[in-house]
Amino acid sequence: MYFVDRQLLDERLDYIESLTKEFKNAEGFALERICHMLIESAVDVGNMIIDAFILRDPGTYLDVMFILKTEGALSEADEDDFKATFKWRNKLNREYTTLDRKSMKDDFNKHLSAFENYKSRINAFVENDGQVVTAFKGE
């Protein structure tokens, strides 16, 4: 039997959905925060699924999405879109004073569909995988 905190999973997926809606009009520091949190929250959700279904351990952020694709939770196109945006993580964390926001926004805009599709793909995987997933609340 596998366990996932379904409430937390839903909160994180809803958060990603909210970020994608705010993205189009975001500028400046708000844009940076949205892009950064899209990456971090997508990986957090991916790690929750990997842990819940006892899949192999990822070594990198990109590996999280590779595992999800390999297990059928993501399409190859979505994995490619995530890869194209994840390159910005290091820049957001370490090169923030010289960040090219226009290029970042263009890249995310071009690949935003992966984040927009993420909630439905993850929910479909959880519901259709055939494994028992029990919600619990840690105390």
Written account of the structure:
There is one protein chain. With 139 residues, the protein is mostly helical. It has a single domain (6-135), classed as Four Helix Bundle (Hemerythrin (Met), subunit A), CATH 1.20.120. It is 71% helix and 3% strand. It has a two-stranded parallel ribbon with strand order 1-2. The longest helix is centred in the last third of the chain and has 28 residues, at 101-128. InterPro entries: HepT-like, HepT-like_sf, Type_VII_TA_RNase.
List keywords for this structure.
139 residues; two-stranded parallel sheet; toxin-antitoxin system; Four Helix Bundle (Hemerythrin (Met), subunit A); mainly alpha
In brief:
By secondary structure, the chain is mainly alpha-helical. It has helices spanning 6-23, 28-52, 61-70, 76-86, 88-94, 101-128, and strands at residues 2-3, 133-134.
Over the alpha carbons, how many angstroms does the gyration radius reach?
Answer: 15 Å
First CA to last CA: what distance? 20 Å
Assembly of the depicted chains: single chain
Helix- and strand-based class?
A: mainly alpha
Report helical residue fraction.
over 70%
Q: Given the C-alpha coordinates, what overall shape results?
A: globular
For the record, what is the CATH homologous superfamily label? bsu32300-like
Domain count, please report it: 1
Poorly predicted residue ranges: none
In this structure, how is the largest beta sheet organized?
2 strands, parallel
Chain-averaged pLDDT: 91
CATH architecture: Up-down Bundle
Q: Proportion of β residues?
A: under 5%
Could you tell me the CATH topology label: Four Helix Bundle (Hemerythrin (Met), subunit A)
Number of helices: 6
Pfam families: HepT-like
Family: Belongs to the HepT RNase toxin family.
Keywords: Hydrolase, Nuclease, Toxin-antitoxin system
InterPro entries: HepT-like (IPR008201), HepT-like_sf (IPR037038), Type_VII_TA_RNase (IPR052379)
